[in-house]
Design a protein that fits this description.
The protein has 141 residues and is α/β, with parallel strands linked by helices. The chain has 4 helices and 9 strands. Strands 1-8-7-2-4 form a 5-stranded parallel beta sheet. The chain has a two-stranded antiparallel ribbon with strand order 3-9. A hairpin with a 4-residue loop joins strand 5 and strand 6. It is globular. The relative contact order is 0.22.
Length: 141
């Protein structure tokens, strides 16, 4: 049986998180993307895959399980760059017994526009939703 991750638009994600304060919001992009491109306000970071070879993080499910307090029915919302990694990560969580997994449609940066850049068509930043940057790790959080 194929698992299906539900999608929320970025704006619906904000509404969902306000209505479900127990929900866990996870940015599953690489550490560099999270720190240097920016991330949604309030999102925890657990990489689904990371460089230099973009290997799948073998500890992804366990790291999410720890953040969720081992409550596999806790609502989870995943975000990545454009929505594709969130689906893969969500399927892995569902296969591990998590329910209520959602992914942010178009992700943080959105689809590539006519200018061959992300951020001009859709996505979290395009919608003007709260976000920040973490810096280099030597500069503070």
């Amino acid at each position: 049986m194929e698992t299906i991750v539900d999608f929320l638009t970025p704006k619906k994600t904000v509404q969902f998180l306000l209505e479900h304060p127990q929900a866990l919001f996870i940015d599953c992009r690489s550490e560099r993307e999270f720190r240097f491109v920016g991330h949604p306000a309030g999102a925890s970071h657990v990489s689904w895959n990371d460089g230099p070879a973009w290997e799948i993080n073998p500890d992804f499910v366990d790291e999410v399980r720890k953040l969720a307090g081992d409550h596999r029915d806790r609502p989870l919302v995943l975000i990545c760059r454009d929505g594709s990694r969130s689906v893969e990560a969500g399927r892995a969580l569902e296969a591990a017994g998590f329910s209520g997994v959602r992914a942010v449609l178009h992700g943080f940066e959105g689809d590539v526009g006519a200018d061959l850049q992300r951020g001009s068509v859709n996505g979290w930043r395009f919608d003007g939703l709260p976000w920040g940057m973490s810096g280099c790790g030597k500069c503070g959080p």
